[in-house]
């Protein structure tokens, strides 16, 4: 097949994938939640059947409300309070991603959420990194290659961001590649954490900011122009600054700036459908933004809550926008170019893994 051919579901399963926006506490296996809940005596789960639990998460998150969506995390956070449980979840995360064809992933988590039973935030980071290490080894034993790194989140409604930012610097080169702020956007602007972003910049540390998901253009503007975000977590609402009423789309000032500067958009379509940012995959702004050559990347956000995977996101995008193999490769290289590892390491994965992987499928 040629690079301009539409790939089959089976080919999509095998293409190399890069994932920049995935939450560790949003990607647990349902059976793992049940296992740990039984071990620790957590009795609040709605069901102890793994298939039913998966469906419950998905349906709870299909409400169209970001607030309701975020509430489902109380269960996953409850089973991630012991060192061994964090290691297990991180280990399974790395293996699950590798089995889906992901060759590079940055998975994020907020250390403060997992300190309810006495772990320190450093303990949480250590356990997470150890889990990824073991998961990468498990993947290698299955003949799969994946690199998984950690992004540490501060919660925008809380006051721990500076401590988390300092952990990013402390663990740089040891499995952590950057910082993020997560949590409810509306009412908690990124500029509330400006001191932490200033600190990270002074330390030459990388960071992305959740912006333009539930809240619009002002959130994106603040994230970039006040806080200096290198990437936008979601950023989907940049579409609000583009006028599609005439024969040609006209970009507003901020949209032009984002495109001109090649600021990566960590777009998560299935998640956005659940929280009400778009009505259907075909209407999701990722199609228009990709056509307009923004630095678009495709992501899962929360694999459990959305019952999704990188393969599923790619299949839906191919179906909705008629993306061919070349477009999938472009989106994948966009993501790899935007990763928080060193430039030579990014090039190695692009030249030695991604391009050969796509070329192999194109030659079939």
TrEMBL record:
One of its GO terms (molecular function) is metal ion binding. One of its GO terms (cellular component) is cytosol. Its cofactor is Zn(2+). It is an enzyme of class 3 (hydrolase). The keyword Translocase does not apply. Keywords: Hydrolase, Metal-binding, Zinc. Its EC number is 3.5.4.4. Residues 16-355 form the Adenosine deaminase domain. GO terms for biological process: adenosine catabolic process; hypoxanthine salvage; inosine biosynthetic process. The keyword Zinc applies. InterPro entries: A_deaminase_dom, Ado/ade_deaminase, Metal_Hydrolase. Belongs to the metallo-dependent hydrolases superfamily. Adenosine and AMP deaminases family. PANTHER family: ADENOSINE DEAMINASE. This is adenosine deaminase.
């Amino acid at each position: 097949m040629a690079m301009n051919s539409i790939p089959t579901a089976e080919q999509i399963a095998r293409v190399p994938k890069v994932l920049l926006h995935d939450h560790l506490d949003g990607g647990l296996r349902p059976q793992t939640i049940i296992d740990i809940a039984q071990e620790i005596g957590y009795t609040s789960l709605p069901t102890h059947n793994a298939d039913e639990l998966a469906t419950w998460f998905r349906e709870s998150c299909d409400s169209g409300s970001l607030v309701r969506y975020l509430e489902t995390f109380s269960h996953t956070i409850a089973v991630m309070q012991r060192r061994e449980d964090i290691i297990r979840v991180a280990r399974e995360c790395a293996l699950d991603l590798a089995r889906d064809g992901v060759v590079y992933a940055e998975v994020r988590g907020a250390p403060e959420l997992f300190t309810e039973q006495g772990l320190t935030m450093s303990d949480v980071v250590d356990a997470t990194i150890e889990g990824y290490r073991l998961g990468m080894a498990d993947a290698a034993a299955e003949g799969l290659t994946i690199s998984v790194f950690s992004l540490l989140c501060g919660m925008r409604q809380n006051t721990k961001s500076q401590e988390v930012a300092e952990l990013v610097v402390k663990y740089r080169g040891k499995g952590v590649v950057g910082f993020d702020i997560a949590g409810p956007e509306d009412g908690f602007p990124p500029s509330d954490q400006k001191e932490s972003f200033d600190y990270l910049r002074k330390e030459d540390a990388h960071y992305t900011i959740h912006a333009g998901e539930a809240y619009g253009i002002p959130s994106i503007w603040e994230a970039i122009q006040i806080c200096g975000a290198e990437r936008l977590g979601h950023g989907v609402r940049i579409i609000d600054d583009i006028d599609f009423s005439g024969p040609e789309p006209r970009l507003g000032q901020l949209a032009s700036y984002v495109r001109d500067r090649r600021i990566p958009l960590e777009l998560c379509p299935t998640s956005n459908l659940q929280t009400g940012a778009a009505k259907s995959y075909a209407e999701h702004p990722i199609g228009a933004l990709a056509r307009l050559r923004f630095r678009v990347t495709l992501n899962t956000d929360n694999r459990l809550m959305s019952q999704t995977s990188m393969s599923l996101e790619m299949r839906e995008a191919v179906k909705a926008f008629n993306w061919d193999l070349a477009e999938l490769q472009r989106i994948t290289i966009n993501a790899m170019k935007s990763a928080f590892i060193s430039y030579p390491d990014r090039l190695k994965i692009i030249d030695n893994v991604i391009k050969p992987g796509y070329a192999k499928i194109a030659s079939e």
